[in-house]
Specification:
three-stranded antiparallel β-sheet, elongated, 3 helices, about 25% helix, about 150 residues
């Protein structure tokens, strides 16, 4: 059963804070259709499907056990069926307890005067961009995507 995890809210005030946000957004999937610059509001916003790093508690005993090579089940009689049922139950239990998940999050940058795009075809709204990192430099934020794409705000 999945536990309820309180939504995380972060705000960056300096370069060090941006490093934390970059870590949280690392490897996020960003649909280009959910990226926009609200010029009148001076906001750059997007939705990202990110890995929920904060629930990753590291290697678990169940994971170590799941990696072991299972012993061969006996092919004949009820013993073989029982071994197969036990293996399937163990697999189902592991799947339910795995803490890894992705969540959608909204990202908003305020006081944005302009947005520049490099190596991204903004007319292809069906694209899903892979966010590698977020960098802060020279009073700007740069979103670096795989395949060399960059959006600077």
């Amino acid at each position: 059963m999945t536990e309820f995890v309180k939504p995380m809210k972060l705000r960056a005030h300096d370069t060090e804070d941006m490093r934390v946000i970059a870590g949280v957004l690392q490897d996020a999937l960003v649909p280009l259709s959910d990226v926009t610059y609200l010029k009148a509001e001076k906001r750059f916003v997007f939705v990202a499907n990110r890995f929920r790093w904060e629930t990753d508690s590291g290697p678990r005993e169940q994971e170590a056990e799941a990696v072991r090579t299972p012993e061969p089940a006996h092919a004949s009689g009820a013993g073989g069926e029982a071994a197969q049922d036990a293996a399937e139950a163990e697999d189902a239990s592991f799947a339910e307890e795995t803490p890894y998940e992705r969540v959608n999050c909204g990202v908003c940058f305020d006081k944005v005067r302009s947005v520049q795009v490099r190596n991204i075809d903004m007319s292809r709204k069906d694209q899903i961009l892979n966010l590698l990192t977020v960098a802060a430099a020279d009073n700007a934020i740069a979103l670096h995507f795989s395949d060399g794409g960059v959006i600077s705000a």
